């Protein structure tokens, strides 16, 4: 099937054609003669395991990385000079929207829309704000939407943020031209704004502009895209496979090159013999109020809700990263006042937090994978003679790399050189290696591929089985269903009574909305 390109929405010249593009970093060949063909007016998925080369391809196409000699890229039939010049790519309508939508929160909507495009007056070099506002308004009008131009982006709701990001990417393309690449941009969108996002994409592709969507959410690929290209170890093993009629199992098989074992589909059951539970009582923060949750050793408890319901505040309040306004926690026979506890005190008490957004929090990107894994491990800093200690450390790092399938499996590589999903695995390894009493996870599998998700689920379950209490805050019902013994639903800051016992993903969505699960595209 490789290379055969069944074209879907529009015929004629592909909007974007990639031929034999390769990229090598040192001894690592991240892309190997990749082929890709995006036709006018389609949403085209690009999927692959962590480290398979998706972001590298997006970065080559927008000029961040120069490719190896030999490849070719065409936009609307005409060749694009390689290495790509970013301004030239933009002028040809090829733009990228990065993870987390790439917005600057403390800038206004008009500044975000026009950043990098401001036209200064010839003599005074001052920005002509009226023209900039007109251009920004026109960009939003193309989507048929109105967002206040002078408001700071950080103050917008998620739907408006998504609108601004798409309008910004769209403004350089004439109607019916151009390709917008979304590099895991839907990762941090909530369930509600995801629906809005896909409606906007439908209106974008209806004009003939095309979309290349990079994502790990396979259900999203099957729901929202017309065709999909699959990268495996830098090779495009499927090019433009129609998604209609494709099952998730087929897609997983193509992506991994093997069947996925059913391990993660089995329910986790907390061991019957447990010690004292971790009890959290009267926890309040900015949104969360008067929350009581208890997690027994060996148990995995999830917290979830719609955006703004307070569940995503819980990990940071119980780990001392944000100060609670009230609340107490009983852990390992000790009582802790959560309004006084800081992060160092939480770590000393046996709490480990794996936050979301690994680039910002938790990983030292310039340090090696091994150094990161060992950074928080209290046992490694003590005792033994240097050579013995070094051997023990090497063995420990090797075990974690193997257990979580970190790729490439090289402890001496700077963490910043790993792909996004592999960084997530290193961050998890770093905290699992501390053998915490309470492991707190926020969106633990957000950036990881389907195979790595299973490795992470298995590692978290193993920690629970060894007696750790696990608290997971997540907006992903599939993840919660795979992991959790119980799930607590949050509404308006309050934890609802009667947690769901071993719920399915649909049970969770239903409990959150008291309604059915909706498809992303009609
Ligand atoms: N700047 C860099 N220097 C060295 N190696 C790199 C660099 N960027 C990426 N790589 C390597 O290139 C390969 C592809 O990485 P890339 O980030 O493109 O993967 P990805 O498919 O986007 O993964 P993920 O889904 O985890 O984001 C990986 O082996 C990665 O370690």
Which ligands does the model contain, each kind named once?
Answer: adenosine-5'-triphosphate
| Mean pLDDT over the residues | 86
N-C termini distance: 28 Å
Give the tally of structural domains.
3
The total of helices stands at 16
Structural class: alpha/beta
CATH superfamily of the largest domain: P-loop containing nucleotide triphosphate hydrolases
Question: Radius of gyration over alpha carbons?
Answer: 24 Å
Q: Report the helical percentage.
A: 25-40%
Question: How many strands?
Answer: 21
Low-confidence stretches: 1-8, 515-519
Broad CATH class of the largest domain:
Alpha Beta
| Largest pleated sheet | 7 strands, mixed
How large a portion of the residues is in β-strands, by DSSP E? 15-25%
CATH architecture type of the largest domain: 3-Layer(aba) Sandwich
- Write down the CATH topology of the largest domain: Rossmann fold
How would you describe the shape? globular
Outline the secondary-structure elements.
Blueprint: E1 16-25, E2 28-38, E3 43-48, H1 54-61, E4 72-75, E5 78-79, H2 86-91, E6 94-97, H3 109-114, H4 129-141, H5 158-170, E7 179-183, H6 191-206, E8 210-214, H7 218-224, E9 227-232, E10 235-242, H8 248-256, E11 278-284, E12 291-295, E13 300-305, H9 314-318, E14 326-331, E15 334-337, H10 343-348, E16 351-354, H11 369-375, H12 386-403, H13 420-432, E17 438-442, H14 450-465, E18 469-473, H15 477-483, E19 486-491, E20 494-495, E21 500-501, H16 505-513
Parallel strand pairs: 3-8, 3-9, 6-7, 7-8, 13-18, 13-19, 16-17, 17-18
Antiparallel strand pairs: 1-2, 1-4, 4-5, 9-10, 11-12, 11-14, 14-15, 19-20, 19-21
Helix pairs in contact: 5-6, 11-12, 11-13, 13-14, 15-16
Bound molecules: adenosine-5'-triphosphate.
Adenosine-5'-triphosphate (ATP) binds next to β2, α1 and α13.
């Amino acid at each position: 099937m490789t290379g055969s390109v069944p074209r879907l929405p529009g015929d004629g010249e592909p909007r974007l054609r990639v031929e034999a593009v390769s990229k090598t970093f040192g001894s690592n060949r991240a892309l190997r003669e990749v082929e890709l063909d995006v036709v006018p007016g389609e949403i085209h998925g690009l999927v692959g395991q962590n480290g398979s080369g998706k972001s590298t391809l997006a970065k080559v196409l927008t000029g961040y990385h120069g490719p190896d000699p030999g490849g070719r890229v065409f936009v609307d039939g005409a060749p694009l000079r390689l290495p790509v010049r970013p301004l030239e790519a933009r002028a040809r309508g090829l733009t990228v929207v990065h993870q987390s939508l790439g917005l600057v929160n403390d800038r206004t909507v008009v500044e975000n829309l026009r950043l990098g495009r401001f036209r200064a007056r010839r003599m005074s070099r001052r920005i002509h704000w009226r023209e900039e506002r007109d251009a920004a308004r026109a960009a939003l009008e193309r989507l048929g939407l109105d967002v206040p131009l002078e408001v700071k982006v950080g103050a917008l709701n998620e739907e408006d943020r998504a609108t601004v990001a798409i309008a910004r990417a769209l403004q350089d393309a004439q109607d019916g031209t151009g390709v917008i690449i979304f590099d895991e941009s839907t990762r941090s969108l909530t369930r509600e704004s995801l629906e809005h996002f896909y409606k906007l994409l439908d209106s974008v592709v209806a004009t003939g502009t095309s979309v290349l969507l990079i994502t790990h959410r396979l259900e999203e690929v099957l729901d929202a895209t017309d065709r999909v290209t699959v990268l495996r170890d830098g090779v495009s093993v499927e090019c433009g496979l129609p998604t209609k009629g494709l099952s998730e199992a087929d897609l997983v098989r193509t992506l991994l090159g093997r069947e996925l074992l059913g391990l993660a589909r089995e329910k986790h059951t907390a061991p019957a013999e447990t010690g004292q539970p971790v009890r959290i009582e009267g926890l309040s923060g900015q949104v969360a109020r008067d929350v009581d949750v208890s997690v027994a050793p060996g148990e995995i408890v999830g917290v979830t809700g719609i955006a703004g319901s307070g569940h995503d505040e819980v990990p940071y309040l119980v780990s001392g990263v944000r100060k609670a306004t009230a609340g107490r926690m009983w852990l390992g026979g000790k009582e802790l006042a959560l309004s006084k506890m800081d992060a160092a005190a939480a770590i000393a008490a046996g709490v480990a937090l794996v936050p979301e957004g690994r680039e910002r929090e938790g990983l030292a990107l310039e340090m090696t994978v091994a150094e990161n894994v060992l950074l928080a491990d209290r046992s490694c800093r003590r005792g033994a003679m240097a050579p013995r200690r070094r051997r023990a450390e090497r063995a420990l790092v090797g075990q974690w790399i193997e257990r979580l399938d970190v790729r490439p499996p090289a402890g001496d590589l700077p963490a910043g050189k790993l792909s996004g999903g592999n960084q997530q695995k290193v961050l998890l390894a770093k905290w699992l290696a501390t053998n915490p009493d309470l492991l707190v996870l926020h969106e633990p599998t957000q950036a990881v591929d389907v195979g790595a998700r299973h490795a992470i689920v298995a590692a978290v379950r193993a920690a629970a089985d060894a007696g750790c209490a696990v608290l997971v805050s997540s907006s992903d019902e599939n993840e919660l269903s795979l992991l959790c013994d119980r799930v607590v639903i949050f509404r308006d800051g309050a934890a609802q009574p009667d947690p769901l016992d071993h719920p399915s993903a649909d049970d969770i969505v239903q409990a959150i909305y008291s309604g059915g699960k909706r498809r992303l595209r009609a």
